[in-house]
Amino acid sequence: MQARMNVAKSAAGGYQAMFALESYISGTAVPQRTLELVKLRVSQINGCAFCVNMHAADAKKAGETDQRLWSVAAWREAPYYSDEERAALALAEAATRIADNPAGVPDDVWNDAADHYDEESLAALVMAIAAINAWNRISVTVRNPAAAAGA
């Protein structure tokens, strides 16, 4: 597959703004491994091969295990995730699939996340979920191909 356009070049200011958001997110108290699991799961849901590939690799660099990476699509059934990670993944799925629920993100999902994260970290998670959804939509729209292994 070949990209339809180089949106990073054609919308350089927009890309810089997105990277500034990423810089903010990475500086928050939310663990990097949790952020990468969230980004990976959202990218799986959105069918973004570019982002799935990138965030699986980034998660590995952050110390994530193969077992947890392989099972993140089935995190509810897998015993490898903490309660905090489960709350973040549930929030990520609900916010990504917002059109599937007329009430938006269910209260029980929100309340569980709020039980595990302080307000600042919860806000950072919301921003991270919004950002990866935006990245997915950019990459899927312009058909950014996944990088070759080792690239």
UniProtKB/TrEMBL annotation:
Family annotation (Pfam families): CMD (PF02627)
GO terms, molecular function: peroxiredoxin activity
Coiled coil stretches, renumbered: none
Limits of the Carboxymuconolactone decarboxylase-like domain: 17-94
InterPro entries: AhpD-like, AhpD_core, CMD-like
Gene3D superfamilies named in the record: AhpD-like
PANTHER family: 4-CARBOXYMUCONOLACTONE DECARBOXYLASE FAMILY PROTEIN (AFU_ORTHOLOGUE AFUA_6G11590) (PTHR34846), BLL7811 PROTEIN (PTHR34846:SF7)
Protein name: Carboxymuconolactone decarboxylase family protein
Species this protein is from: Actinomadura bangladeshensis
